[in-house]
Amino acid sequence: MALSLRRSRWGYFVGIAGAGLWAYTNLFVTSFLSNGLHYLREWARTGHLQRPDQLIAVPAWLSNAMIVVACLWAYCRLLKKSVSDVTKFALTFALTTGFFALDMYLFQPRYLALFPRLLHPHWPSL
Questions:
Q1: Single pTM value for the model
Q2: CB atoms within 10 A of CB 11
Q3: Please, what is the Cα angle at 105 between 104 and 110, to 5 degrees?
Q4: How do residues 61-79 score in pLDDT, each as one tens digit?
Q5: 3-state secondary structure 48-117
Q6: What is the largest CA-CA distance in the chain?
Q7: Integer distance in angstroms from the first to the last C-alpha of the chain?
Q8: Among candidates 6, 19, 33, which has minimal Cα distance to 93?
Q9: Cα–Cα nearest to 19, from 75, 70, 74, 79
Q10: Exposed, middle or buried by CB within 10 Å (0-12, 13-18, 19+), for 28?
């Protein structure tokens, strides 16, 4: 956030990479978002919230999507852009993804199985 507030392209790249990774993961790799949408529909239909822990997926995904859109918008507003920004974004994406992988390796190794599945996305069953 501090980098983005300083109008640094690196901050925008981190926002796009980090939030984009989780928005993509929850849309195409896990059932977290689809389960949240299911329980949101059930809550609207019945008036009874069965799984509030699953419902958090909906605003979480929307928040990540908004961060991606906001960072893309802010980057597009930069006056000076360079072809090397593509390389800088790729580096940022690799480092951000590596950070999340290391974090999972150290604290929740069972979630490392998500990473190979990122390369084989599937459409969610809503």
A1: 0.88
A2: 19
A3: 70
A4: 999 999 999 999 999 999 9
A5: CCCCHHHHCHHHHHHHHHHHHHHHHHHHHHCCCCCCHHHHHHHHHHHHHHHHHHHHHHHHCHHHHHHHHH
A6: 53
A7: 33
A8: 19
A9: 70
A10: middle
